[in-house]
Amino acid sequence: MSADLAFDLLLAASLLWSAWRTLATPDIFRAVILFIVFGLLMTLAWARLSAPDIALAEAAIGAGLTGALLLDAIGVLRGRKQP
Amino acid sequence: MTTGLIFACAGAILFTMGVAGVMLLDHLLRRILAFNLMGSGVFLVLVGLAQRAGNPDPVPQAMVITGIVVAVAATALALALARRLFTLSGGYTLPETPDD
Amino acid sequence: MKPLKHLTLILAASAFAALLIAAMFALPPPTVNLAASVAADMDRSGTAHPVTAVLLNFRGYDTLLEIGVLLLALLVVLAVSPREQHAGSAAAEPVLQMLARIAVPLMLLAAGYLLWAGAYRPGGAFQAGAVLGAAAVLLFLAGLLPGWNAPTLRLRWGLAGGFLVFLAVAAALLGQGALLRYPPEAAGALILLIEAALTVSLGLILAGLFLFLS
């Protein structure tokens, strides 16, 4: 029981830390990578909340597709490809 | 402290961080990130608070699945607008309003 | 002036978060038990998984509106993206191409499984559609799928199909007096039909959000 509690607190703390770093880090590319990390941690949180359906959706959409969209936008920003 | 309550509290803090980020950050991509953090915070509160007694509740879970899919559509829409702004003006920030 | 503004906002945000958390701890225990009422109606819902039952039966109108919102978002993305220079992504490395050739059939299999599994265990149209969309994005990034310039007629039917099938079912059942109240004996078949159409449309829409943008 107390191991569960410790894991939940650790997971919540890492969620908040990765969210904070996403907003505060100066490099925008790093911010997007941290956001993808945040999405994967959210997947773990949904699993802990006994919501496997949301965990599946979050892993595929929140971390995968949103990350791809954001990285593509950064590619345009850095001029590596035609907008 | 149940699991639901812990993550509901984390969600409340996330939501507040997202609101502050949307207000304070200038770069539009960062604002979109902050907006997504806000959404994730709301989802955590919705599910975590409903399950604070400990047993899973399918109704908020189904709503959050719908919400995640709508959030990615909103993100794509915001990115399309931001990229249009980038091709037109060459910048990823909104023009400053005179009163600021 | 700016640091002062930042500091004030951060202090206000912290106070707001503290208030929210205090309110959560002060909440009385819930008086409505939604999980129990869902469990009581499960045998009339046509599926064996509570989340799928809520998504497509008890609160089907949420899902109907949701696919409508997605379609609307895609239309706006189409409207604001410039229509010219879509050459598709440049030819990628052979390793990525080979990996995509191996992974995409498996992803299609996973999407089919998720759709089928939604009736009994975690899974369903949303997750399956997301996997389909991710497969299309992977094919595009590997240079195996050309970029989409303007949607062809077939693609348009695919994008709108899920919404149209869902709307048709809702309209056909409207004669019974309530939106999306399935007759219990046909509920399973109707939900499967809607879910299959939703999966294809969601996959195409999510892929389109990426492919029309880039």
Number of strands of chain A: 0
N-to-C CA distance of chain B: 44 Å
Question: Any idea how many domains of chain A?
Answer: 1
H/E element sequence of chain B = HHH
Average per-residue pLDDT of chain B, rounded, comes to 88
- Range of helix content of chain A: over 70%
Number of strands of chain B: 0
Q: How many individual domains of chain B?
A: 1
Low-confidence stretches of chain A: none
Q: Mean pLDDT score of chain A, rounded?
A: 88
How is the quaternary structure best described?
heterotrimer
Class by helix and strand content of chain A? mainly alpha
Outline the secondary-structure elements.
The complex is a heterotrimer of chains A (83), B (100) and C (214).
Chain A: H1 2-24, H2 28-48, H3 52-77
Helix pairs in contact in A: 1-2, 2-3
Chain B: H1 3-24, H2 28-50, H3 58-89
Chain C: H1 2-26, H2 34-41, H3 50-58, H4 60-80, H5 94-117, H6 125-141, H7 153-172, H8 187-211
What does this 3D model show about the protein?
The complex is a heterotrimer of chains A (83), B (100) and C (214). Chain A is mostly helical and 83 residues long. Chain A is built from 3 helices and no strands. Chain A has one domain (2-77). Helices cover 84% and strands 0% of the residues of chain A. Chain B starts with a helix and ends in an 11-residue tail after the last helix. Chain B has 3 helices and no strands. The longest helix of chain B has 32 residues, at 58-89. Helices cover 70% and strands 0% of the residues of chain C. Chain C has helices at 2-26, 34-41, 50-58, 60-80, 94-117, 125-141, 153-172, 187-211. The longest helix of chain C has 25 residues, at 2-26. The mean pLDDT of chain C is 85. The interface between B and C is large, with 41 and 44 residues.
